[in-house]
Design brief:
The complex is a heterotrimer of chains A (about 150), B (about 650) and C (about 400).
Chain A: H1 3-32, E1 33-37, H2 39-44, E2 52-59, E3 65-66, E4 71-77, E5 82-88, E6 100-107, E7 113-119, H3 129-137
Parallel strand pairs in A: 1-2, 5-7
Antiparallel strand pairs in A: 2-4, 2-6, 3-4, 4-5, 6-7
Chain B: H1 2-30, H2 33-37, H3 39-62, H4 69-74, H5 81-86, H6 92-113, H7 119-143, H8 167-196, H9 201-232, H10 243-268, H11 272-295, H12 308-332, H13 347-379, E1 383-385, H14 387-404, H15 418-424, H16 426-443, H17 450-471, H18 479-488, H19 491-516, E2 518-524, E3 529-532, E4 535-546, E5 550-561, E6 564-569, E7 572-576, E8 581-585, E9 587-590, E10 594-603, E11 609-617, H20 620-637, H21 656-659
Antiparallel strand pairs in B: 2-11, 3-4, 4-5, 5-6, 5-7, 7-8, 9-10, 10-11
Chain C: H1 2-18, H2 20-23, H3 32-53, H4 58-85, H5 93-117, H6 127-153, H7 158-170, H8 174-188, H9 192-205, H10 212-223, H11 229-242, H12 245-259, H13 266-283, H14 306-313, H15 317-338, H16 342-354, H17 358-371, H18 376-389
Helix pairs in contact in C: 3-4, 6-7, 7-8, 8-9, 9-10, 10-11, 11-12, 12-13, 15-16, 16-17, 16-18, 17-18
Classes of the chains: A alpha+beta (about 150), B alpha+beta (about 650), C mainly alpha (about 400).
């Protein structure tokens, strides 16, 4: 092989790997990105049932109902709109009524959100930033970002 | 007074770092040996001063001196001593102090152990290292000062996030930082080489031990972080592709690539441009990791410091150093003449493939980590890129890397013989095939890819072992000669073999856990039983308990197998007092076949509790593998060759070639 | 101050460390290329040993050796050129300039930054120390609370009152102290000590005015022949306050005799005596030995004017105490604004003690010391006074 050929082989391999990588990235991005919505977004933006999304807001006071086994039903609200959520599994440590929560799952055709993952905040003052933002839009929460409130 | 001495020492260190930056580099430009030599004592003095500052802060923590704002906000008198100490770096200010302390430690190490470095290179390295110190010390003193006082002092602190009260987490930041910051050495060496104008194989050999040391620390730091996430977060997983994890993983990937490409540069004087660029990029990724974690642009369990002013400052530091380095690189790139040429199939070619795959994988992680932020900044849409993305991109890139891995060491430099290498790997290939077939026969269930994954791990291990066997002429020469050869193999060769075996072991653990993990979420009343992965578990109920600074509910699960009691698990839910926080403590039973992992959930109707059970087969191999990798690095580091390079002073002035 | 000395030490140590190369020069100046050559030589040896062990083939080894040798030669060439060029003719200018700059800039920047961000005046406050201090005060409080609670249930427990009373006295809660002493006196019976304590507390609770019950109690305390200085002191004060200056002077003289030469309060009483004698003279219409002039000499103590005293005599006890307090306040104001001599300051301090205003006395003493910082004699007498009054 001449020097030129060697170089072209190397460059070819590089391009092949990079092409593969770009393909993988695009494919994966297409497939596995999850958008975040507040309950108001869900009603306004006409989310299709079956699309995987994250839904965040406050757990509505008095809405948590224990079902069979570990199934739990509760409502997520941003005070303007409310979406009911069904979840089967162990709730995170700081899941409380009236506190912020982010759930991940799919909207059912009956409008009930079927969550397969509930993300908790990790201490009393912490608010998931997406939730904080969404609530700020509704004028509910006055804190700054996810900064803990000074006590 | 101790606190104020610490504060002054911190500021004085800034002054010394300033001298360390300016004088040696200036001296190297002017070829003034006295000025060049200032770098050494300055680096040592800077380290001592920062050590003094660090211990002053630690003293304040240990004695609960709440007149320091930092202690007040992050400590509590009821905390156990261990966590008072780890509280020093369990917060933004303290961890930044630790960051510069480690930075200074590496500078000091070069000053002490770098006797084999040419004076101008050493002066420039220490100067660049000093300049990083200056930037971060200004950052600390002006925006994140741990010695800020409050008067009058409160009588009780606000505590440490209890989720962070854990031995593994207490000592994981120091190692993580040692890795992160250690790559500053690679950066400083790269800049110094560009400044002195000599980028040659000797440089590659000098930079390797420092990169290796940083890589080892980072390996251990990441492993400890993952271990912590595994048993503290109670999610049963060991890696979450959390942005903070990615922030430490990206420099690790780049550093791994750098270790391999530096080898090519050392042996063949090739790939100079790429090596220098990689050295700069590795530290840039470290800086970016620091920025991501410290600025609070991310949200995850780790991001406990949130302050935009700080973020902007670190961003400034990042832009300055990365931009400056790349500008210098662009200016001097034409001076990096290409050295030895090589065929595509050769040791060099294999290492190029390694670099290509690793850096592409690193780029994929980079995109997955930063894309959500970029998208939000541009369009305002909020998305999350979770594990599916990383599994879909990172995984496929790793498969060819692992397949190709055993071939590399068998290929000769310059031009390799792929057929010969394949022949030498035939035993490894046969072993691998046997394992795959056995795995299919034994498991029957689970994803069809899993046995192939196991085979991949075995392939890497067997390949690494066959290299040693081949080098020692095992089975081809009398045993005494084999032993003699085994003894004579350089430690660096053993080091790379051991590290590659570690990768294989880790792959085994990852594949087994991912493919055959069993999970069960059920509600259990006291007295009820369930079974998972051949274990029978009887739930005995929950009892309250009080710890030093928390109260908890402890569940009791009696685990038996075939009617015989194996162990008792005590998963618990804790409620900490300061600050009020609930945490989950998993009850874990470790066995060779895998971990039985139990988490206590909420109380349900009629006295039942939600209980989450996992069986994670072979999960410990993941951390055992990383430990093996660490020891492989250690073995390489003790190799004689990484230390030589200092000319004998007697030969000064005479031409070494003439003396031959 | 110690802090700044430590800072200076730290700075000096750092400066010496950094500038060490200036202090100790090393002759050996190795060219960079020599270091490169050492590495290449090592690589050559490595290849040889690998060839011997059969790790690499002969042709491979030879190719590699040629390559490394070429590098070695190049390094040697660079070395020679550099060695010729670098004659070390930089002179002394550059290093000395750097030396001067470093010596000035580093300490100045450090101290300036520290002054901006540091808090040199703040002490360390380890929690354990603070708690100790805090808890010893706390302990007394807790103990008292317990005793008080007990006494609420058993008000007839004389012992309890006797324990509690001195604590009240020390805390300057004179009214409660007097009350407690009174109860212990009633419940446990009269002893000279109890009478004295009661009388003393009563006087103090009354802003230094010796009321009739106090006087009776004190009188009784001394009746048994016990020589309580404090009792005699208050009795003398009582006579003074009643305007019976001659008797008061006699009482002071008796007290002096009783205390002997070495009594710590001797000087204080003597001054009191002198003042009383002066007033006694005024009251009895005699000319004082040294008439108070418009501008009193330094040794003369200005007492209340004749009118003042006369007015005081015709007053009820409350009015009188108010007048005394007013006089003291006037003195304090005058001394503060115009200054005064040592004797006047001492009188102010004494008046405050007599009135039971311990805190004010201490402050006045501090002010006095401030006014006479350059007069050792005055300071000495102030100190003596402080000791005698137990301040």
């Amino acid at each position: 092989m001449t020097r030129k050929q060697r170089r072209s082989v190397l460059i070819g391999v590089c391009l092949a790997v990079l092409g593969l990588a770009v393909g993988l990235v695009l494919f994966a991005l297409e497939d596995s990105i999850v958008f975040f919505y507040s309950p108001s977004d869900v009603s306004q933006k006409n989310i299709k049932p079956g699309q995987r999304i994250r839904l965040g807001g406050l757990v509505k006071e008095g809405s948590v109902k224990r079902g069979e086994n570990t199934t739990v039903q509760f409502s997520v609200t941003d005070t303007a709109k409310t979406v009911s959520v069904v979840y089967t599994g162990v709730l995170p440590d700081l899941f409380r009524e009236g506190q912020g929560v982010v759930t991940e799952g799919k909207l059912g055709s009956d409008g009930v959100f079927v969550a397969d993952n509930v993300l908790a905040k990790h201490d009393e003052n912490y608010m998931p930033p997406e939730v904080a933002e969404a609530l700020k839009k509704q004028g509910v929460w006055q804190g700054e970002g996810s900064k803990p409130k000074p006590n | 007074m101790i606190a104020e001495i610490g504060h002054f020492a911190l500021i004085l260190a800034l002054g010394v770092a300033l001298a360390q930056t300016i004088l040696p580099i200036w001296g190297a430009q002017q070829r003034d040996y006295t000025l060049m030599r200032i770098g050494v004592p300055a680096a040592q003095a800077q380290f001592c001063l920062l050590l003094l500052a660090f211990f002053s802060l630690m003293a304040a923590y240990v004695t609960s001196d709440f007149s320091l704002l930092n202690v007040f906000e992050n400590s509590h008198s009821a905390k156990p001593l261990l966590y008072k100490i780890s509280g020093v770096w369990g917060n933004h200010e303290g961890s930044m102090l630790l960051w510069v302390l480690i930075l200074a430690l590496f500078g000091c190490a070069v000053a002490v152990f770098g006797r084999n470095l040419p004076p101008d290179l050493k002066a420039n390295v220490l100067g660049v290292q000093g300049s990083i110190s200056v930037a971060f010390l200004i950052f600390i003193v002006t925006t994140s000062n741990p010695f800020t006082r409050i008067d009058p002092a409160p009588f009780e602190g606000r505590g440490l996030n209890p989720i962070l009260q854990d031995p593994a987490l207490s000592f994981h930041p120091p190692f993580l930082y040692a890795g992160y910051v250690g790559f500053s050495m690679a950066f400083s060496f790269a800049i110094a080489a560009l400044l002195t104008g000599r980028v040659d194989p000797a440089w590659a050999r000098w930079v390797r031990p420092w990169t290796l040391a940083a890589w080892m620390c980072l390996t251990l730091g990441i492993a400890m972080g993952s271990w912590w996430a595994y048993y503290e977060l109670g999610w049963g997983g060991w890696w979450f592709w959390d942005p903070v994890e990615n922030a430490s993983f990206m420099p690790w990937l780049a550093g791994t690539a750098l270790l391999h490409t530096a080898l090519v540069m050392e042996k063949r004087d090739s790939l100079k441009v790429w090596t220098i660029l990689l050295a700069i990029l590795t530290f840039s990724l470290s800086l970016m990791g620091t920025f991501l974690v410290r600025s609070g642009v991310l949200t995850s369990v780790h991001a406990f410091a949130v302050d935009p002013a700080r973020g902007v400052f670190i961003l400034g530091i990042m832009v300055l150093f990365i931009g400056g380095a790349l500008a210098l690189f662009a200016g001097r790139a034409q001076m990096l003449r290409q050295g030895g040429i090589f065929a595509p199939v050769s040791r060099e070619g294999a290492l190029v493939l390694n670099n290509l795959l690793i850096s592409t994988a690193c780029a994929a992680v980079f995109i997955g980590t930063l894309y959500p932020m970029a998208l939000e900044a541009v369009t305002g849409a909020k998305i999350s890129v979770g594990p599916p993305f990383f599994n879909a991109t990172f995984g496929p890139l790793m498969v060819p890397l692992l397949i190709a891995m055993p071939f590399g060491p068998f290929l000769a430099w310059k031009r390799g013989d792929i057929l010969g290498a394949s022949q030498r790997l035939s035993v490894a290939a046969i072993v691998t095939m046997l394992v795959i077939i056995a795995a299919y026969a034994l498991t029957g269930s689970g994803p069809w890819l899993a046995p192939l994954g196991l085979g991949l791990g075995i392939w890497v291990i067997a390949g690494a072992l066959s290299e040693v066997a081949f080098r020692a002429k095992m089975f081809r020469a009398p045993w005494d000669e084999v032993f003699r050869r085994l003894r004579n193999l350089p430690r660096a060769a053993y080091g790379s073999t051991v590290a590659h075996i570690g990768i294989g072991v880790m792959v085994l653990g990852i594949v087994a856990t991912t493919a055959w993990q069993s999970e069960k979420i059920i509600s259990m009343k006291p007295g009820q039983s369930t079974s998972i992965a051949g274990y029978d578990l009887k739930f005995m109920g929950v009892s309250p308990n009080k710890g030093a600074n928390y109260s908890e509910q402890i569940g009791l699960l009696i685990v038996s197998r075939g009617g015989e009691e194996v162990t008792r698990l005590f998963p618990s839910k804790r409620l900490y007092v300061a600050p009020k926080t609930a945490t989950t403590e998993a009850g874990i039973h470790a066995a060779w076949t895998g971990d039985l992992y139990s988490v206590l959930g909420d109380e349900l109707k009629d006295g039942a509790f939600a209980v989450r059970l996992y069986f994670n087969p072979l999960v410990r191999l993941i951390w055992i593998g990383t430990l093996i990798m660490f020891f492989g690095g250690l073995l390489s580091l003790t190799d004689r060759r990484l230390r030589v390079g200092a000319p004998k002073p007697a030969r000064a002035g005479t031409s070494p070639a003439a003396a031959e | 101050m110690a802090l700044w000395i430590i800072f200076a030490g730290l700075t000096a140590a750092a400066m010496i460390a950094v500038l060490w190369p200036f202090l100790r020069s090393v002759e050996q100046k190795m060219e960079a290329a020599a270091y490169d050559a050492a590495v290449f030589k090592d690589q050559l040896e490595e290849i040889t040993s690998e060839k011997e062990r059969g790790v690499i083939s002969k042709t491979e080894a030879e190719a590699a050796q040629t390559e490394v040798s070429r590098r070695l030669l190049a390094a040697a060439r660079v070395n020679e050129i550099k060695a010729k060029n670098s004659t070390g003719s930089q002179g002394w200018k550059l290093p000395s300039l750097a030396l001067a700059c470093t010596l000035i800039c580093v300490p100045v920047t450090s101290v300036a930054l520290y002054l901006v961000y540091g808090s040199p005046s703040l002490q360390d406050k380890p929690l354990a120390d603070r708690l100790e201090r805090f808890s010893s005060a706390k302990k007394v409080d807790a103990l008292m609370a317990r005793v008080e609670a007990r006494l609420r249930d058993h008000p007839e427990d004389g012992r309890g009152w006797e324990v509690l009373a001195p604590v009240y006295l020390r805390q300057q809660r004179f009214k409660e102290a007097a009350d407690a002493f009174e109860k212990s006196l009633r419940l446990l019976g009269e002893t000279p000590q109890r009478l004295l304590d009661y009388g003393n507390a009563l006087v103090l609770s009354n802003d230094g005015i010796v009321s009739e019950p106090a006087r009776l109690a004190l009188k009784k305390a001394t009746a048994g022949g016990k020589s309580f200085v404090r009792a005699h002191f208050w009795l003398a004060v009582a006579k003074e306050q009643d305007g019976r200056y001659t008797e008061a002077a006699q009482a002071w003289r008796d007290l002096l005799k009783r205390g002997g030469e070495k009594a710590p309060w001797r000087e204080a009483v003597q001054q009191r005596l002198a003042a009383v004698e002066q007033r006694a003279g005024v009251a009895s219409g005699e000319k004082p030995a040294m008439a108070p002039s418009k501008e009193p000499g330094p040794a003369v103590v200005k007492g209340p004017s004749q009118e003042d005293v006369a007015a005081a005599q015709g007053m009820s006890s409350t009015d009188r105490s108010a007048m005394i307090a007013q006089m003291v306040a006037g003195l304090a104001e005058r001394l503060k604004s115009d200054g005064g001599n040592v004797e006047e300051w001492k009188r102010l301090v004494r008046s405050y003690t007599v009135l039971g205003k311990q805190q004010d006395a201490i402050e006045a003493l501090a002010d006095a010391r401030g006014a006479f910082t350059e007069d050792p004699k005055a300071l000495a007498s102030l100190n003596e006074l402080a000791i005698s009054l137990g301040l």
